[in-house]
Amino acid sequence: AHFDTRKGPLAGRKIIVTSGPTHEPIDPVRYIANRSSGKQGHAVAAALAKLGADVRLVSGPVAIADPAGVSVSHVESAREMRDAVESLLPADAAVFVAAVADWRTERSAAEKIKKAPGNAAPSLQMVENPDILAGIGHHANRPYLVVGFAAETQNVVANAQAKLKKKGADFIVANDVSHEGGVMGGDRNRVRIVSAGGVEEWPEMSKEDVAERLAALIAERLKTITV
Ligand code: CTP
Ligand code: CA
């Protein structure tokens, strides 16, 4: 399907979306990653495109197809994702759905690390990855609207409010991932929208419905911003 980027409430708007996990190499065959199917991020990209936006999806490694009507950059690591996002500025809005690995190994081995009798297991020296959302939230060329996601297992609202401030976001879509058989890899989601204006609870719904409601919220917010 092709979406007409000249029609719909987001016509003429360029929106960056990140999705999926990042992979941080240990050696040529091994990596560290976060758990993420990319379903929610890809659904957000598709929903924004359906409203007429020019969507630029930056996706980590996922097993699902590129969404229709969206331009996709495929990346592996957090630093590649950051570079891809920055190269897409300026934009009207950016939505950070990716589950970025918080740490990477300080250096990855050029050759495969081999087991050998008597060899100890390798110990990995980790360093922190750049915070892509915070970098864009505080960027000189910041999009009008910056939206983050937050996966929490406890103190969901307080943690989301702290992230909102620290990262310079307008909204955080907060997700309680504590319950079993829940969000991770599943098709449904229950979120709260945390902003400076307060907390809005959305009922449990499919990830597609979360995406469509979020796209409508973004369209409504951007409507008040004239360029
Ligand atoms: N994020 C990002 N770059 C990172 C880490 C997170 O862009 N290096 C973004 C995610 O895409 C998400 C938001 O920041 O939109 C919150 O991610 P989350 O993992 O919940 O928060 P962290 O700040 O990494 O804190 P922690 O994992 O310790 O809860
Ligand atoms: Ca994190």
TrEMBL record:
Q: What does this protein do?
A: Catalyzes two steps in the biosynthesis of coenzyme A. In the first step cysteine is conjugated to 4'-phosphopantothenate to form 4-phosphopantothenoylcysteine, in the latter compound is decarboxylated to form 4'-phosphopantotheine.
**Residue ranges of the region described as Phosphopantothenate--cysteine ligase:** 15-227
**Protein family per UniProt:** In the C-terminal section; belongs to the PPC synthetase family.
**Record-listed CTP binding positions:** D102, K112, P130, D131, I132, L133, F149, K163, K167
What is this enzyme's EC?
Answer: 4.1.1.36, 6.3.2.5
Q: What's the domain of life for this entry? A: Bacteria
Species, as recorded: Borborobacter arsenicus
Task: State the taxonomy lineage.
Answer: Bacteria, Pseudomonadati, Pseudomonadota, Alphaproteobacteria, Hyphomicrobiales
What stretch or stretches form a coiled coil here?
none
Q: Which GO terms describe its cellular component?
A: phosphopantothenoylcysteine decarboxylase complex
Required co-factor(s) are:
FMN; Mg(2+)
Its pathway, per UniProt, is: Cofactor biosynthesis; coenzyme A biosynthesis; CoA from (R)-pantothenate: step 3/5; Cofactor biosynthesis; coenzyme A biosynthesis; CoA from (R)-pantothenate: step 2/5
User: Could you tell me the gene encoding this protein?
Assistant: coaBC
Say if the entry is tagged with keyword NADP: no
Q: Which GO terms describe its molecular function?
A: FMN binding; metal ion binding; phosphopantothenate--cysteine ligase activity; phosphopantothenoylcysteine decarboxylase activity
Q: Which residues form the DNA/pantothenate metabolism flavoprotein C-terminal domain?
A: 10-220
From which residue to which, out of the full length, is covered?
Answer: 179 to 405 of 405
Q: Name one GO biological process term.
A: coenzyme A biosynthetic process
Spell out the protein name for this chain. Coenzyme A biosynthesis bifunctional protein CoaBC
What are the UniProt keywords, alphabetically? Answer: Decarboxylase, Flavoprotein, FMN, Ligase, Lyase, Magnesium, Metal-binding, Multifunctional enzyme
